[in-house]
Each structure stands twice: as C-alpha cells, then as structure tokens.
Amino acid sequence: MVRLPGRSLLTRPLPRPPGLLRLGPLRAEAFSSRLHDERVAARLGLWLGITFSICFVTGLISHGIQHPPSWFLWPSRPVNLYRFTQGLHVLTGLASIPLLLAKLWTVYPKLWEWPPLRDVAHAVERASLFLLVAGATFQLFTGLINIAYWYPFRFFFTTTHYWTAWITMGALVVHVGTKIAVSRRALSRSSPDGPDGSDGSAEPGLSRRGLLTTVGLASAAIVAVFAGSTVPGLRRLTLLAPRRPDIGPQGLPVNKTARAAKVVGTARDPAYRLTVGGAGATTLSMSLDELRAMPRTTSALPIACVEGWSAPGVWTGVRLRDVLDRVGARPDARVRVESLEKGGLYRSTTLNPAHARDPLTLLATELHGEELDIDHGYPCRLITPNQPGVLQTKWVTRVTVL
Ligand SMILES: Nc1nc2c(c(=O)[nH]1)N[C@H]1C(S)=C(S)[C@@H](COP(=O)(O)O)O[C@H]1N2
Ligand SMILES: [Mo]
C-alpha cells in the first residue's frame, strides 16, 4: 500500500504549549456538569442536522425561483407549493434557535480543550468548527430579524444569507464527517439517562433527558406561535409573528404600502395606462376601463411572502395570457411585468412561459370581490400561482414580451 505523504503531515503532533498555562477554564476538571455530554450533544446535533438540511434545501428553492439559473424551471403548480416550502424554511430556522443554543452550551467546554491544537488535522477541524458556529449563528440571527422586518445591516440580506448558507453547510458536512463515529456510538447507547429516566448519579438538578425535553418543547413552542402566520388552523396561537395573515386591508396583510412605494399619485391618476408590447409583438395601450372590459376571470391564489407569512386571496381580473395573445406574443416568450414604482428591488418581475401562460395568472383589479385596495396594487397587480410574494408585482403599468 502506498503511504500518502500528506497523511503523516496532517497527524504529526504539534508542539504542546507549556502545562502551566492550564488555568481557569483550561484546567482538567473545569466543567463538571453531566449535561456537557456526548449523548446530549449527539442528540441535539442530529435534530439540528435535520432542521438545517430542510432549511437549506427550501432556501435553495426560494433562491432558485428568484434568481433562476438556466436549468432551473420552477413549475406553476401545485399553487401552494412555494407557500409550503417557504413556510418550512422559516419554521425549521426558528425551531433551530433553541436547538443551536443548547448545543453550543453543551459543547462549549471544548473551546478550552487541551492541548488546543494536537496536530494539523485537529487545527483544520477546529477552524471548520469556527465557520460552522459563526455561520449557523449568523444565519439564524439574520433570518430572525429579517422576518421581524428589522434591517440594521448595511449589506443586502438575501445575498449574504445565501452565501453564508453554503459556507455553513460546507462546514456542517465536514463536522458530521469528523463526528459521525462518535455520534453513532453516543446515539446507540439507548437513552441519555438510565432506563428509569435517571442518569444513575445522585447529582441534583436537570437530567440529560430533562434538558433534551425542555429544548424540544422550546422549539415546538416557537414553531407553534409563529406557524399561524402561514398555517390557517393555527391562527389563534399567532403570538410572535410579525404578520397575521388575516389583518390588513381587504383581509390581507400589506408588505409595502403605496405611500412607501411613492405611487399614490400615479396609481390614482385618471391618465393611467397599461402598456403591453415587446419583441415580435404589437403595442397596446389600455386605460383601466379598457382593461376591465376584457374577459374577466377569478383565481384563488395565496400571497406567500419570503418572510414566511402567507394568506389566501380571491382575485379577479384579466388573464395575462389573454393580454399576451392580443399583442401576438410568442407562446414561449418570457415576459417582464413592471410597476409604477420608480425604484425598489421588487418593481419588476420576469415570468417564465409556464407562469406567464398559466390560466390562473392574472392582471388582477379586484380582491375578495372589491376593487383592489391601493396598498394591494390598485389599479392592477400581478398574481401568479406558486410564486414568492416578491414576484407578485403591484401597481403594474407595463408588460414587455422578451
Ligand atoms: N411594486 C411592488 N410590488 C410588490 C412589492 C413591492 O415592494 N413593490 N412587494 C412584494 C412583496 S415582498 C409581497 S410579499 C407582496 C405582498 O402583497 P400585498 O402587499 O398585496 O399583500 O407584494 C409584492 N409586490
Ligand atoms: Mo414579501
């Protein structure tokens, strides 16, 4: 067998720092609680592995929809799929908060491991752990303040959250790789405590099982008080969610108001026109009355915000595909929909043909049987099946065939 030269370099012991530095937390028996335990750490690690994986995959889906690479085709059905994946994203993120705090507390004595760096492999492992802890903490904290609509940072949330997710998951894979044997062993010891639920010591205080139960309940409680912002049956429990899905004009929350978007004047202007045109198409300019005079239909479609809240709506308006057919657009063309809003990240949406041509996709002028409230996009807004709220452009004034 060939011996890899790199191997010996990685595992050759590094010089040990002098023993007289072993003071305070560096002392041999500095941490005595039975809760700083491999079995507790392994169990919490398993739960975190599950929540982080679901959170990562659903996050990638959401990112893919908003910044689609050429191979990524998000379908327009089932209409509630995004609502479901994004609800899971936010809920698994929230559930991870108590799990991560407990996990960090359980393992923090390892920060003072002696010797600090045994060999190069150990140094690399500790560096990846630093990335994991920093990345995971950053993701959960920024995610939380984002759903609370608090943006104290200079950086743009989505880009940072996306790239930090890759770094964190990379570090997590390395961590699982280095710990899998230890975890397996720890988890296969049937229970974190003895068969009778005690941990076999006379030590008073919280048992290992007690800690795990408490942490599990804390996660469940956070999920329960937030879930009502997306699961209709849990509304009455909605204590913490920044958006209640049934509060707002016409029974629907508002993300950005017309005033905040600075469109109150242009949206109410009697000279409002909807302009449709673009590649290979004729140009059409319609007043609101002319738009309303086209064949109308009703679609029941949710608004599913990236921040995790979602709410059902019943929208009436003109099918986008009817408008596209009127200007002779190619059926396979992508379509840009633009708002009266002058700036802002969400002033326009580009639809793939599956969404542009879906019979449920509307330029809506009514919500719940009433003329659209100005905060919901009067005179006309886009509503599409199975898309994030950020792509449901309000105050639409232009449709361009690409
Ligand atoms: N022009 C424009 N349209 C927009 C937005 C915006 O900021 N500007 N916000 C979007 C977001 S993030 C969401 S969640 C939905 C919310 O729609 P609603 O306010 O009618 O509930 O509108 C979308 N449409
Ligand atoms: Mo949103």
In sequence order, what are the helices and strands, one letter per element?
A: HHHHHHHEEHEEHEEHEEEE
Biggest sheet, strands in spatial order?
Answer: 2-1-10-5-6
Count of helical segments?
Answer: 10
Arithmetic mean pLDDT: 92
Strand elements, count: 10
Question: TL;DR?
Answer:
With 402 residues, the protein is an alpha+beta fold.
Would you kindly provide a written description of the structure presented here, covering whatever features stand out?
- The protein is α+β, with helices and mostly antiparallel strands.
- The protein is built from ten helices and ten strands.
- It has helices at 5-11, 38-66, 81-107, 120-147, 157-188, 208-227, 264-268, 288-292, 320-326, 353-356; strands at 274-278, 284-286, 297-304, 310-319, 335-339, 348-351, 362-367, 370-371, 381-383, 396-401.
- Strand 7 (362-367) and strand 8 form a beta hairpin.
- Helix 2 packs antiparallel against helix 5 (157-188), helix 3 (81-107) packs antiparallel against helix 6 (208-227) and helix 4 crosses helix 5.
- It is elongated.
